[in-house]
Structure formats: C-alpha cells, structure tokens
Amino acid sequence: MWSDKETDRDFLGYQVHADLLKNVVCNPKNLPITIGLYGDWGSGKSSVLKLIKKSIDEDDRIKDKTIILYFDGWSFESFDDAKMALIQGIVDQLEVKVGKIEKTKSFFKKIKEHIFSMRTLQSIVKNSVLPIGTAAVTGGAIVPTLLSLLISNKEEIKEEVLSTLKDAWEGKSISEKEYAAVREFREDFEKLIEATGKDQIIILIDDLDRCLPRHIIDNLEAIKLFLNVPKTAFIIAADESIVSGAIRSEYNTLVDDGKDGQEKRDIGNAYMEKFIQLPYRLPKLSNKEVETGTIKYFV
Fold this sequence. Notes:
five-stranded parallel beta sheet; disordered C terminus
C-alpha cells in the first residue's frame, strides 16, 4: 500500500485536471469563483492542489501576477471559531507575501481592526450578554469588567465595538452592526486585493472534509460572506458526500418533519450549491490505475 501523502509528482495522470483548474482560476473573466474539488478520501485531491501550485509557479506568463495561498482545513480544528481562524490565516499569509508593498499597509491595519471587531461582536453574541436587570441577578459582573477593559484600550478599538457592547448590555439588537461589520470587512478586503497589484489571489483549501461539521460550515461561510471578492479564487478539496452529510447533521432540525426523505437528504447538496460555483469531480480510479500509480510511486 502506498503513502496517502500528497505529492506534486503526477503518478496518476492527474496533470490534466490540474491544468484545467489552473486555466479556470487564472482567467480574470472567471473571478471571483469558488471551486469544489471533489473525490473520495485517497483519490488524489491533495496531489491535484499541489500540481496546480507547481504548474502556476513554473509558468512565467502568470507566476508574477498570481499569489497562491495553501491551507489545511484540519489545522483549524483546535480553534473554537474556525471562521475567524481561516480569515485571520489568509490575511496573515497575504501580509507575509505583500505586506511590504506600501499601498497595502493601511488596508492591513484596517482589516486587522475589522477582525478584532468581529471577534468581539461574535463573543458578545455567543455569550448572550443580558440586560442589566437580569445580569444583576445572574452574576453578570463579567460584562462591566469587559466593558471597562475595552474602554481602557479604546485607542486600539473601533468605536462601534464599544457602542455594540453597550447596546448588548442594555438588551438592544446588534444584528445591524454585525451586518455592517461584514460589509466593511469585504470592502476593505477588496481594496487590499486591488492594492497588491496582482491579477488573481488563489486560495487552496485541503482536507475540509476532516473537520467537525460546524467547522466545515464555518469555513464555507467565511469564504462566501467575507472573502469572495473580485480577483479571488478558492479551490476547496473535499469528499462531497462527507461535507453534504455534515451540513445535514447540523441543519436537520431546521427541516420540516413533514417533508419526505429525498428532500431531507437534499438539504446538504442544496446548501453546498449556494457556496460552490463550479463542482469538479475527480473520476474514481480503477484497480489497474491504482496498481500503475503504486508502481510509479516506488520506481
């Protein structure tokens, strides 16, 4: 049995798939786009991602116009908030690659402020901050303590975050501010991408299907809501049936019990179609192809 480790050596004749996907994501007319690279575990998805990266890196026509970022979805499993972890990871990798470009510096600063603001907003929502009267009974001293901490560092914090915390403390709705935070992040992220001077930013995400169901959904939502801006391309490698099943397991309680079984099963696929513009399914390998690939691997 040969190793399941990904490689940029083409043992299975998958260069044709890598070239097709490369041509899609390196055509500005197709962007932004999110591609689902689907296949069973061990079918070669990770190797196709490596082949795409290698092919772009070796193409003198486009390599200087392209930024390629690679993420292993599994690496975010240790974070409670996988959505923000992915966003932070992409911003950090971008800063390493283009942070010295003068035009990008102010946008990186703004985006880091947005990330802090969104983390704070999510923390407020997650912990369900209660109105003063109720909190007093339930021992809500943590909230004024947090408010005091934020105010003491207000030079580093956007004013709307402080306002949001106050609103939550008073029992007011903060959904509008959540929407505004997403919109502002997208606007500045788009300006950052433009400031890099590159034609395309390609983000490769591997092993999404190894994540917990909630984290799978968080990663898809991060891409769709925050990061899917002009000049970006995402290629997500995953087992389609596992991702679809994870979505169903999270949202099955939202499906009307009166619906028939087929409709319940389709909720996972319907959800994925909202996020993936181009599904690309690797063909299943025959026993002969597996055997041939194994021989090439060891030769």
